[in-house]
Design goal:
By secondary structure, this protein is α+β, with helices and mostly antiparallel strands. Helix content is 32%, strand content 21%. The chain has 16 helices and 20 strands. The strands form six sheets. It has a six-stranded antiparallel sheet with strand order 4-5-6-7-11-12. It has a four-stranded parallel sheet with strand order 15-18-19-20, sandwiched between helices. Helix 4 crosses helix 5. The radius of gyration is 23 Å and the shape is elongated.
Length: 484
């Protein structure tokens, strides 16, 4: 149900109150978990966590798949969505004498760093309790974990939504003080009347419906939530300073349209983007015959543009549903070859027409350049482009795979230059003001969004030195040219 958030690797662990059972490997969920594996996991406990990996930090080996595990203290399995901007600094601390133990890290993943920072903090809280005659670590274990999460939030920088299983404690969930990445809680009544509520915690609430669960609420920025093995839920605000600034790219691309994030319907947000973009398109006076979405993410905005402009909406690009999402593929070479196998242009739609192609975003340019060429070969007379998001000009450092400005086609081009390079007859982008205002109208309680990839304005934990380091990092240097 969350396969759209990651295609590189899949993993799951279940817990029966005593033992953990783990399966993880590279590949889609359906590749890693067949009927045999699912039966094994289902029979191995009532508490479980799973993860689909979209590599924004770390390597691409099977060992980089989540969940990650540490056996001390207690035994902790953890999954993480986001990106730590001080992972290198924390890694050195964990390896040195400032750590409770000199911890050995097996991967380059920032998620493993986060897990060990948490484990280190629990160790320290346990030690404080042992040295206090009035504190019993056995009966105060939840308190120790909550205090440890509070300690973690004082040193972690970046974006993190975390779910973990801790032996003897239950399920732990917490979210960074800005709530950059989403995290929701769902629940359903128990099958057995003598048991408590059954809970789920997920990146998107679209997962709850198929499980016959209802959306209870979001985990608040800077909040820690513990659900014990009896279904009792405990929560506490552990960050002294918290302010909701959710990632706006979630609404543009990452999340499913049937999800509601931070009390904003993703579908309604995308419709609002279409309404605003239609006003700009109307001003161009382009001679458009037909409006066509680039599947799948741009459909709601495209439908709204078609309605606002009174122009025919057509599905002219047929998608091979057995090819995954190209944006979240691990490298540029894979993305480029996948576009050609993923989409096919229908001459019945394009022949002799002036076409407006609508996409949710134009990031690297590789996909769109091939699509424009494809549509022209299918007989289009003119090809105009509309992006439902503004130009992506800056690196994203909070868990979206845009680590370097060198990858971004609009980092150093004007709209006219991009139009020429893509081979289009015209191009138009959403404005940043319209993008952010659409979100504020849907949830007036949100003052600002994390939109650094559009604006270049980052949260306080990111400085120029960090951004410069990202430009020369191994991940950035592995990126190929933005237009093939």
């Amino acid at each position: 149900m969350l396969q759209h958030r990651g295609q590189d690797a899949s993993g799951m662990v279940t817990y029966d109150g005593t033992h953990f059972t783990e399966i993880k490997d590279k590949g889609l969920v359906s590749d890693v978990f067949g009927e045999k594996e699912m039966q094994k996991m289902a029979s191995a406990g009532r508490i479980g966590i799973g993860h689909v990996r979209y590599p924004t930090a770390g390597g691409v080996l099977a060992s980089d798949a989540q969940p990650f595990f540490v056996n001390s203290p207690l035994g902790i399995y953890l999954v993480h969505n986001g990106n730590l901007t001080n992972a290198d600094e924390l890694r050195e601390i964990l390896r040195g004498t400032d750590s409770f133990f000199n911890r050995h890290l097996r991967t380059s993943s920032d998620s493993e760093v986060l897990l060990n920072v948490l484990a280190d903090a629990i160790h320290r809280q346990h030690q404080k309790c042992v040295l206090n005659d009035c504190c019993d670590p056995e009966t105060n274990i939840q308190r120790l974990v909550i205090d440890a999460v509070k300690e973690c939030m004082s040193v972690l920088k970046g974006a993190y939504s975390v779910v973990a299983i801790i032996d003897g404690v239950g399920l732990l969930a917490f979210r960074d003080p800005y709530g950059v990445r989403p995290l929701s809680i769902g629940r359903r009544a128990p099958v057995d009347s003598d048991k408590g509520w059954e809970y789920a915690v997920a990146s998107e609430d679209c997962t709850f419906g198929p499980l016959e669960m209802t959306h209870l609420r979001d985990v608040a920025p800077g909040e820690c939530v513990i659900i014990d093995q009896e279904g009792n839920i405990t929560s506490e605000q552990v960050s002294e300073k918290s302010e909701l600034k959710p990632c706006v790219f979630e609404y543009i691309y990452l999340a499913r349209p049937d999800s509601v994030l931070n009390d904003i319907s993703v579908y309604e947000y995308q419709l609002a983007m279409g309404t605003r973009l239609a006003r700009k398109i109307q001003e161009t006076k382009w001679p458009i015959d037909v409006v066509v979405p680039v599947p799948d993410g741009s459909r709601p905005a495209c439908i709204q543009i078609s309605s606002e402009l009174g122009l025919p909406y057509r599905e002219g690009l047929v998608k091979n549903r057995y090819i995954g999402r190209t944006f979240i593929m691990p490298d540029q070479k894979t993305r480029s070859s996948s576009v050609r196998r993923k989409l096919n242009a229908m001459s019945a739609v394009f022949e002799g027409k002036n076409v407006l192609l609508v996409d949710d975003s134009i990031v690297r340019g590789t996909t769109m350049s091939q699509i424009v060429n494809m549509v022209r070969k299918a007989g289009a007379k003119r090809v105009y482009l509309a992006s439902a998001s503004p130009p992506v000009k800056h690196a994203n450092v909070y868990g979206v795979d845009m680590p370097s400005k060198r990858e971004l086609v609009m980092a150093n081009l004007t709209e006219e230059e991009l139009c020429e390079r893509l081979g289009a007859d015209g191009i138009i982008f959403q404005t940043v003001d319209d993008l952010l205002e659409a979100g504020r109208e849907l949830n007036p309680n949100i003052v600002d969004f994390e939109a650094s990839c559009f604006t270049g304005h980052y949260l306080p934990d990111v400085d120029a030195e960090y951004l410069e380091a990202q430009e020369v990092s191994d991940r950035a240097s592995r990126s190929e040219a933005v237009i093939s």
